[in-house]
Specification:
four-stranded antiparallel β-sheet, 16 strands, elongated
Length: about 250
């Protein structure tokens, strides 16, 4: 499978005026940004409809990243965006879906990949760019507490190793755990759910370096609880069929 896509600049990237200023920096837009381009080649294999493997490689060019511009008149630096990034990525992904027992199902996914991000030599950027081997793991579990499967519990975890993101931004490792409980009645039309997010989490950091300073920025993450009530209108679905192509696609996902 070959995939090619363009990533258009957002309005925040391209505004041609200063739109943010604090004690550390001035942010400016750039009105002539080009769309970033990404190409990807992937090869996948599914074993027994439940165990998936995928080998992929990709290349990003004209990537949009933040750069530092120096005003020759005032000698004042400002941060703007430019098409200054190139990234190679090679990865192996594995996923497994298990639903052989009536009271439990799980979906497990893990990915090991190598990426190399380079920023154009003629620009100065607050992001360092770099290369490295990265790993991520996620697990989503569903528990059924009665035969009709109207009372369900969910729990999920996610972990990612330190890594370079698009734009050359360096992230610390991250871990989160979530849980939820739901009950459906009236033939599935009414659903009551309670969910808790970030029950366990690590505080993620990003690293920013400029000629004038170094910053270790903490991205705030807080525990969050929600209670929802959902009602679906319309006639009940008596039955439905699935095309073979849809089954094949679902097994690959």
């Amino acid at each position: 499978m070959v995939l090619s896509a363009s990533i258009a600049p957002t309005s925040a990237n391209s505004r041609p005026f200063a739109n943010y200023e604090n004690q550390y920096s001035i942010m400016r837009g750039k009105e002539d940004l080009r769309a970033a381009k990404r190409a990807k080649l992937a090869l996948g294999y599914t074993f027994l409809g439940a165990l998936d493997f995928q080998l992929d490689g990709g290349y990003l060019w004209d990537g949009i990243t933040q750069v530092i511009r120096l005003d020759p008149v005032t000698n004042q630096g400002s941060i703007t965006h430019d098409n200054a990034e190139k990234t190679w990525t090679f990865g192996l992904e594995n996923s497994f879906f298990f639903n052989k027992v009536s009271f439990f199902q799980t979906y497990i996914s893990q990915r090991l990949w190598y990426n190399e991000t380079k920023l154009d030599a003629h620009v100065s950027s607050p992001y360092e760019g770099g290369s490295g081997l990265n790993y991520s793991f996620s697990m989503n579990n569903t528990f059924f507490f009665n035969r009709s499967k109207t009372l369900q519990g969910t729990c999920s975890i996610y972990y990612a190793s330190p890594r370079y993101d698009d734009g050359g931004l360096r992230h610390s490792h991250s871990f989160t755990a979530n849980a939820g409980l739901s009950y459906t009645l009236l033939d599935g039309k009414l659903r009551i759910a309670a969910d808790a997010y970030n029950l366990i989490w690590t505080e993620p950091y990003i690293h920013i370096n400029t000629p004038a300073y170094q910053m270790r920025v903490k991205n705030e993450s807080n525990s969050l609880c929600s209670l929802s009530l959902t009602y679906s209108f319309g006639a009940s679905i008596e039955g439905k069929d699935e095309r073979q192509s849809a089954k094949d696609l679902r097994s690959r996902m």
